[in-house]
Structures are given as C-alpha cells and as structure tokens.
TrEMBL record:
Record domain PLAT: where: 2-121
Every Lipoxygenase domain range: 120-673
Protein name: Arachidonate 15-lipoxygenase B-like
The keyword Lipid metabolism is annotated on this UniProt entry: yes
Species for this entry: Solea senegalensis
Length: 751
C-alpha cells in the first residue's frame, strides 16, 4: 500500500474557508488515487493566519510522478453553497519526493478543478499526454473567461466584462480591498470632509478660502501650497512631480515657438545656452485643437502650451518662456518671467492645467493602466499556470482588470467624475487625446534607460525619478534575466515556445493595434529580447505606475497647482491680469472639491498592498528562481534604505513614496486591517441565523437521528445567543462546534 501525505492550505484572506465538503484526487504518470474527503476545512473565517488540513491518501501502488491534483467540493445538507480559496497543496510521496501544487483561486462551484505540480514547464517540455491535455484545457477555459473587448476605436483593447462582479473571481478585489476602496467622488468628499461644498458653484474670491478646504494635508501638499508660485518649484515638478515624462532637452527651437535666440537672461543668450545643453522644452501638442467641455453651464478652456526651461548655474530648473497655444500670432503672446507678476503666474497656471490632462490621460491612464491591462489579459489567455512567465508576471496583474473596469464605469464614463469635472472630459476630446497619445507611444519610451537617453536627460541634476528609476530597472532586469535564462537556454528555446509567441502577438495586436511604428515586437527571436520586454512590463506595472500615481494628492491638494479645468480663455494681451482675474480663471468650488476627492482616492494605498519584490503567493518552487527571488528582495531592500537615507528634502518624498519598497509594517495599515476583519466578523454574524435555520430544517426532516439532533440543537442555541459584543469570546468556539457538526453529518451520510 502506498501512502501519500497530503496537506491542503486554505488562503489567509477573509472568508477563504468553506463549510462545504472538499475532496481531492492525486493523478500521476502511473495512475490515480481514489477521491478522498478532507475533514473540516472551516476555520473561523481565517481571522488570523491560514488553515492547513492534512489527510493520508492510500493507493494500492504508487501512482508515479505526480502531474496534477483534482479538487472539488459539495455543499452539506444543512449548509448553503459557499466559496473557498485554497492556496496550495503539498504532497509527500512514498518515494520521499515532495510535490507542490499552487492554486490561489476561488472555487465557487461543484465542478472538478485540476491544478498542475509547481515545477515550471514550457509547452514543448510536456512529455505526458495528460499534462498536454490539461494545459490545452486550461487555456481553452481561460480564453472563454478573459475575452478581448474594444472600449473605443483606436485605443488598446480591454477585458470584456459588464461589471466587476462578472470578472473571474481571482482577478477581483479581495474583501479587504473592496471594503476600503470606493472609487466615487462622494466617498472622497466624505473622507476629505468636503461634502457640504459639493453643490457650490461659486467662483473662488480669495486664496485663503482655497487654503481652508485643504484637508488631509501631507508634508508635500503643504510645501506645494507655500511654493507653487515659485519658478524653481514649477521647473522642479517636471523632474520629480507626477509627470516627469514630458520634458526633453532642446537643441533647436520649434518653428512654432518664436522665442528670440538672441534673448539674454543673465547667463548668455538663448542660442548659447542651447548649444551648452542647458535649455529644455515641454510641448503639449497632443492637446492642440481639442474642445473643452462645459461645467455647470460655463465654458471651460484647455490650452496646448509650449514651455521653455533653463538650467541655471545653481542647477535649478526655471521656466523662461511660455506660449499658450501652438500657433504663434499677435493674439498668442509669449510670456516671460519679466512680465507682470500675474501675467506670468496665469501663464504658468494654464500650463499646470494642461499638464493635469496630459498626465491623467497619457502618462497615467494610457501608459500604465490601459497597457497593464493588455499585458494581463494576454498573460491569462495565453500562458497556463505551469508556464514560468505566468509564475513570474502574475503578481504584477493583481487588481488590474478590476480597477480599470471601475475607472471606465466611474471616472471616464458619461457620468464619470473625470468626464464631468475636467476640461478634457468630453468623449471626443478624451478619445482624441488618447488616440494621439497611443500613436506617440514607442517601445523605447516605455523603457526608462532608452527614454531618458532619447529625451537627453542623462545628466540634468536633481532628477530623482531618473536616478531611482534606473536603479530599480537594473535590479528588475537582473532578476528577470536570471529567472528566464534558467528556462530558456538559447534563442531557439524562445522561438519554439508557441504560448510565449501568442502572448506577445496578442499584446502587439490588441495593445498597440499592430502599429509597427511603435517598435513593439510582434514576436520574440532571442532570449535578450524577451528579457528586456518582460523587464519593461514589470517596471510599468509597478514602479512606473507608482511614480505617476502615488503623488497625485500631494501635488493636487492645493488646487491652483493642478487645476482640472479653467474658466476663462487665455489672455491675448499682456498687462491686464490681476489676482482677481486669476481667481476667476480657476475652477469653481464644486469642480475643485470633486477634483480633490478623486485625486485623494487614487492616491490611497490599501492595507493589502503587496510591495515590489514580494511574492505572497508561491508559484515558483525550484531552487534557482527561489534563490533569485531572495536575492531580488535583498537588493530592493538595500536600495529602499539608500533612497530613504538620501531623501532629506521634503520635495523628494513623492519619488521616494512612489519608487521605494515598503518592508516595515505601517501602523495605519494594521488599524485598517483590524477594521476590515471586524467588518467581516459582523457580516458573518449576520449569516449565522441562516445557518441555524438550515439546522432546524434538517432536524425537522430527520427527527429519528437522536445523536445528530442533540448536537445540532446545542449549536443552534449557541448561534442564537451570539451578539457582536460577545463575539470575541464565544464565536470561535461555536464555529468550531459547527465544523464538528459538519464532520459528524458527513460521516453519518457515508455510514
């Protein structure tokens, strides 16, 4: 008789356990076991830690090398159908081998689910017919679950889903994330204590009034409020604000920006400084000619400015010329620092409003969210769980589809907050800007080393996004190279991996609309090509998104620094702007409040946040990738400490928060986690009467079963006596008795 020691690990998330009967079968190269029942998987809603159930599976002879396990569950007679989240299965064979089977998915039906052994295999390495068949079936099911859909013509495709509930359960928010995250302006207004201003359509009459609504201030937002008028801070944001992706070195002035090259600003002429490499350009040409929407019955305005910046001898970066529209003319003056205070400040305000739109639609939405969704959908459609690239990338797809679907429903839809309260909210305007942005995307612009070089920013000082980002890219690159090189020994191995080729083929087709001009590969011919592309995917889905998202409230809480819309047209002459003009130009009160609420919500980090480099779900089990993960985490921790030690100025904190790795437990996170779990227990308490009712119904139908009746009556009484105040002292014991009753009923049924 061959004995297999089987351990089934239930996930540690809230509601991961089940009252249902769970069964397991082992399948190997020489046969399969009987279907075995696992005793009592229910574990007090897993408030602390995960649950491990152990069972010995006996077979007449060895089933050989294990290929997969089959798992299914059936509802009990007195318990309703519920969901279960198994994490992994561990099996020790009679030959002394230990097999791991990663699961990490919700099982919400009574179907048989198959999970492969943890060793990563490429498609052409499958030697057993059952392994090949299971691989094909898994991808067939995934192709039905993860379908492509066209959100808008000319834009990247997305997952086809009507609502978040229709998404596959494994890509939905966890209970924790769902309880904390409400992507609505109303929720944000409440959190910021601004709900009473939501219907106020008045214009601002003083900057003091704007300051009074700055709630939940951060060190950075307070710094912004004090320094937003300064030219040095205006220039600084192009390097280390939330949109460090636009600035580039300027060697030759654009034809439509006729700044006199002979202009002298104290350190030589413009022409001389361009030759020295000290002049930089920000061109918002993607916004040219688009129509701004009406808000509260008032026409809004969105410009497409050009900004010239100069690196001074003290290494600060300051603006030296601003033109608010793309076409030069008498009604489109070029503004200079030598103009009146409010002429210059108003010109900079129009630029900051344009930067809000450029950042939100291109830098943030398109280049991180929409592309990340393409990477994720293609991964889940084309690579099975046993594929090494699936194991490497699946942590980087976490929540991507859920958050993007919410954004499409609640932010950029017809009634979305962005649509209603941003100048660029018109459907055609958003589409035009996004389409232009996608056309401008190149492979090199998504790879930070190439992007920095192409924009000529290799040596500009105080560019922390570049400094920290390049170090992170290098760490990720070395990790990816180590992992992938252990599976792909040569270029031929890459070329013959049909699943891998389908993955990149779908990305090229559905993400970049088969535009060869982007430079995005449509197939992989070499290991080095694969390594670079995967590095880009991981960097985009983690570091890049953090850099352009995390600081939104820091830099936008003080509305004049980041207005979502402007209410007056740009000045056509100089010398007429006053402080009152500037205040009238800024968005009204309710537009301000809604903009702040959304930026605050988008900047929040949930308590189940997973730091870069952490793999809480075990997918790799081989020695090489496991050692590389440990090394990867060590390098990230070292870099995190180095960045933290160097971040002595408040203004660097945004980049630090966006790019560093969090290893220390945040006390606020612990509080939030406690509140979420308390909510889960309250919800469970509300379901216990239903459980009691099921028990009573069962008793009425089976009055002759005296032993069972006695046990059930005891538990039913205890359920009825539980209140929230007594939950901590008696709930767990009662739940364990329910679990024992479940086991007793199963044994009675079998007998």
């Amino acid at each position: 008789m061959a004995k297999y020691e089987v351990k089934v690990f239930t996930g540690s998330s809230v509601y991961a356990s089940t009252f249902n009967d769970v069964y397991i079968k082992l399948v190997g190269t020489k046969g399969e076991s009987e279907r075995y029942w696992l005793k009592s998987l229910f574990s007090s809603v897993n408030v602390v830690g995960s649950k491990v159930n152990t069972v010995d599976v006996h077979c007449p002879t060895s089933v050989g090398d294990l290929i997969l396990v089959e798992i299914d569950k059936r509802p009990q007679r007195i318990f309703p159908e519920d969901d279960w989240f198994p994490a992994k299965v561990e099996v020790k064979s009679p030959e002394g081998n230990t097999y791991f089977f990663p699961v990490y998915r919700w099982i919400d039906d009574s179907e048989v689910h198959r999970f492969r052994a943890g060793k990563a295999l490429l498609c052409y390495e499958e030697t057993h017919s059952l392994g090949k068949y299971d691989r094909e079936q898994e991808l067939k099911i995934r192709a039905e679950e993860y379908c492509w859909d066209s959100f808008e013509d000319g834009l990247p495709y997305c997952i086809k889903a009507d609502s978040t509930d229709s998404l596959p359960s494994e890509v939905q928010f966890s209970f924790t994330k769902d309880a904390e995250f409400k992507l609505t302006a109303v929720h944000g207004q409440a959190q910021l204590k601004l709900s009473q201003l939501v219907y106020c359509r008045e214009k601002w009459t003083s900057f003091d009034d704007i300051q009074r609504i700055m709630s939940n201030a951060t060190e950075i937002s307070e710094y912004v409020q004090k320094h937003w008028k300064e030219d040095t801070f205006f220039g600084y944001q192009y390097l280390n604000g939330v949109n460090p992706m636009l600035i580039r070195r300027c060697r030759v002035l654009p034809d439509n920006f006729p700044v006199p090259e002979a202009m002298d600003f104290g350190e030589g002429s413009l022409a001389e400084q361009m030759k020295k490499g000290n002049i930089y350009l920000c061109d918002y040409k993607r916004l040219d000619g688009v129509k701004a929407r009406m808000i509260d019955g008032e026409q809004q305005y969105l410009m497409a400015p050009l900004v010239l910046l100069f690196k001074k001898q003290d290494d600060t970066l300051v603006p030296i010329a601003i033109q608010l529209k793309q076409t030069p003319g008498e009604d489109n003056p070029i503004f200079y620092p030598s103009d009146s205070e409010y002429d210059w400040l108003l010109a900079k305000t129009f630029v900051r409003s344009a930067d809000f739109t450029e950042h939100q639609l291109n830098t943030h939405l398109l280049r991180t969210h929409l592309l990340a969704e393409v990477f994720a959908v293609s991964l889940l459609r084309n690579l099975p769980m046993v594929h090494p690239l699936y194991k490497l990338l699946v942590p980087y797809t976490r929540y991507t589809m859920h958050i993007n679907l919410l954004a499409r429903k609640l932010l950029i839809s017809k009634e979305g907050v962005f649509t209603k309260y941003a100048a660029s909210g018109c459907k055609e305007t958003k589409k035009t800007i996004l389409t232009r942005s996608l056309t401008s995307v190149t492979y090199s612009s998504l790879c930070i080393p190439d992007d920095i070089a192409e924009r000529g920013l290799e040596d500009i000082p105080n560019f922390y996004y570049r400094d920290d980002g390049l170090q992170l890219w290098d760490i990720i690159f070395r990790f990816v190279k180590g992992v992938l090189s252990s599976y792909y020994k040569d270029d031929a191995a890459v070329q013959k991996d049909s699943e891998l080729q389908k993955w990149i083929g779908d990305i090229f087709k559905y993400g970049f609309l088969s535009q060869a001009s982007t430079g995005i590969p449509h197939q992989f011919d070499a290991v080095d090509d694969l390594i670079k592309f995967v590095t880009m995917v991981m960097f985009t889905c983690s570091c890049q998104h953090g850099a352009v998202n995390t600081g939104q409230y820091d830099y936008g809480a003080w509305m004049p620094n980041n207005p979502t819309s402007l209410q007056l047209p740009p000045p056509t002459t100089k010398g007429t702007t006053t402080e009152a003009t500037l205040l009238e130009t800024l968005p009204d009160v309710n537009t301000t409040v809604n903009g702040m609420a959304v930026m605050w919500l988008l900047s929040q980090q949930s308590s189940d946040f997973v730091p870069l480099g952490q793999y809480p779900q075990e997918h790799f089990f081989e020695e090489i990738p496991c050692k590389l993960i440990t090394k990867y985490q060590g390098e990230l921790k070292k870099l995190s400490a180095a960045i933290e030690n160097e971040a002595v100025e408040t203004r660097r904190a945004c980049v630090l928060k966006a790019l560093m790795v969090y290893f220390n437990e945040d006390p606020e996170n612990l509080i939030r986690e406690y509140m979420v779990r308390e909510s889960a227990l309250t919800s469970l308490l509300n379901t216990l009467p239903q459980t009691a009712a099921h028990m009573l119904l069962f008793l009425n139908r089976n009055p002759e079963d005296k032993q069972l009746s006695s046990k059930a009556e005891t538990v039913t009484v205890k359920v009825s006596e539980i209140t929230f105040s007594s939950m901590s002292s008696c709930l767990m014991g009662t739940l364990n008795e329910i679990s024992e009753l479940q086991d007793f009923m199963h044994c009675s049924a079998v007998a």
